[in-house]
Amino acid sequence: MEAGIQQRPGQVPTDARQLRSRGALKGALLELLEERPFDSLSIREISARAGTGYATFFRNYPDKEALLADVASEEIGSLLAMTQPIFRIESSAESTQALCQYIDTHRKLWSALLTGGAAGILRAEFIQQARQLAMGMPQPESWLPADLAIVYGAGATIDLLAWWLGQESDFPASRIAGILNRLIIAPLVGDRTIAAPAG
Predict the structure, then answer these.
(1) N or C end of the chain: which has fewer CB within 10 A?
(2) How many domains are contained in the chain?
């Protein structure tokens, strides 16, 4: 492995060749995830599908989990940007509908990400990005700490989506959106100023 080429986490490469390699590796992983669970994929398979050398993989990522985290970060960033109004009560129902419709439209990918051994990585990334998104929003005075609301809401959303995508029966996106809104989102964005139960 060449010294100084591997990127530190969070560092964006600027070299055109490295950007191409990373793009090819991410594309290869996305294709393979539609065929098989993440746990069954090898770095050699990912590299071969990407058309890059085995050593090139390690110039860009320390392991396949880091590649998955990179893919997950982009997918979750797109999802959260689209559903940002979910945090406002007047638009939470529409936002949960948009979120579930997006997941349903990209069902193979999200099934692979959430049910193929990568759910833990996705959950952590979703919570991290939701926290960053919430930093720029006004937080009401509440008995419920804002960070706990974000951690619970993001984590529970990922758990619900993973459950949905793992079901054999085909629940429509609209039904899951209703469950998501009533069970998780509406209670969090609703009147959090109500006093906490004594005790």
Answers:
(1) C
(2) 2
In a domain, 8, yes or no: no
For residue 49, the domain's CATH number is: 1.10.10.60
Please tell me the distance from the alpha carbon of residue 90 to that of residue 101, in angstroms, as a whole number: 19
Give per-residue pLDDT as tens, 8-20: 444 556 688 889 9
Q: Containing domain of residue 55, as a range?
A: 16-62
Q: Note whether 42 and 137 are same-domain residues.
A: no
Give Cβ neighbours of residue 46 (< 8 Å, ≥ 6 apart). Answer: 25, 28, 29, 32, 57, 64, 67
Q: Note the pLDDT tens digit of each residue in 144-197.
A: 888 888 889 888 988 999 999 989 888 999 999 999 989 988 888 765 444 444
For the entire predicted model, the pTM comes to 0.71
Angle at which helices 16-33 and 107-115 cross, to 10°: 90
